[in-house]
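Design a sequence for this backbone.
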């Protein structure tokens, strides 16, 4: 199934480039060498072993290496078997800069509540997610998500725990109304080919089989303004985006720039980002005043562009191809 969208995307880029010129359909960037993901095999104060899709690998840990597993940790607190994402030093790809272990996120609409356990609909093309809000994180979560009730939006970063996610850090502020009572949004002016707003992230593999599944480091984005008649389909549950996004199709390529780091990449549209269309939040990073989510980057793309996944977002500028 994964090969068909990729093939269609290649065909669309080729045809668009032939009709409008190569600048209208740039080739997407590959995963940079300094972003690596896999299953932790061993760790010491100086070395880290990883089972990755390309085989077993070893990396250098320095006193400057930092670790995250639901919060700042030390190397000795990590355990073999964990899903690990590494950002290494660019140009010195064996030296680890930062490690994230069992990183996970829950974004969508709450559909059921049972004590501290939530069921969250993540979008028409994604499986529902079970989120558990531990007591120690409940105060922090409820400051920005006071209504943990059916029909309300939920977005939190945490760690994967079996088939569930322990939600530890709120990624946004929850609107004070359920999704069905969202005030009507004005019609979107779609002429803009360059839009600044909030870029969030999602994990295409949900932390599973990262030692064998190359999608764990897929470079791409889910887009909240797909052509409804072409790719989104009749089951699409998206809303009118807050940002004036141009309509795009699966396989289209865009340039995405992290305004905080000024790092850019050409990324393909690999999925529908219907869940992102419900959020009109503003990312506090870099002092941006632009509201609305313009894209959900794959986790690898977000990290490659210098984003901090535990922060949940970055301010970004999306530029669609122009003839």
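Sequence:
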């Amino acid at each position: 199934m994964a090969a068909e969208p990729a093939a269609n995307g290649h065909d669309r880029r080729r045809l668009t480039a032939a009709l409008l010129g190569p600048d209208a359909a740039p080739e997407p960037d590959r995963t940079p060498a300094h972003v690596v993901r896999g299953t932790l095999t061993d760790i010491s104060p100086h070395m880290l072993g990883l089972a990755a899709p390309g085989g077993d690998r070893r990396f250098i840990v320095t006193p400057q290496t930092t670790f995250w597993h639901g919060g700042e940790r030390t190397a000795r607190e990590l355990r073999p078997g964990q899903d690990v994402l590494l950002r290494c030093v660019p140009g010195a790809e064996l030296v680890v800069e930062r490690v994230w272990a069992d990183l996970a996120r829950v974004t969508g609409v709450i559909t059921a509540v049972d004590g501290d356990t939530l069921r969250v609909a993540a979008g028409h093309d994604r499986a529902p997610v079970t989120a558990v809000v531990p007591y120690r994180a409940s105060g922090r979560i409820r400051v920005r998500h006071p209504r943990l009730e059916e029909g309300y939006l939920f977005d939190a970063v945490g760690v994967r725990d079996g088939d569930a996610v322990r939600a530890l850090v709120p990624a946004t502020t929850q609107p004070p109304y359920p999704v069905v009572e969202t005030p009507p949004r004005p019609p979107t002016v779609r002429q803009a080919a360059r839009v600044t707003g909030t870029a969030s992230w999602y994990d295409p593999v949900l932390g599973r089989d990262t030692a064998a599944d190359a999608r764990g480091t897929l470079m791409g984005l889910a887009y909240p303004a797909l052509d409804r008649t072409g790719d989104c389909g009749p089951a699409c549950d998206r809303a009118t985006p807050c940002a004036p996004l141009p309509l795009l199709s699966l396989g289209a390529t865009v340039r995405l720039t992290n305004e905080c780091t000024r790092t850019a990449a050409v990324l393909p549209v690999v999925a529908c980002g219907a869940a992102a269309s419900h959020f009109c939040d503003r990312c506090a990073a870099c002092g941006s005043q632009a509201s609305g989510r313009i894209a959900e980057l794959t986790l690898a793309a977000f990290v490659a562009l210098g984003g901090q996944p535990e922060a949940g977002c970055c301010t970004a500028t999306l530029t669609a191809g122009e003839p």
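The longest helix spans residues 3-20.
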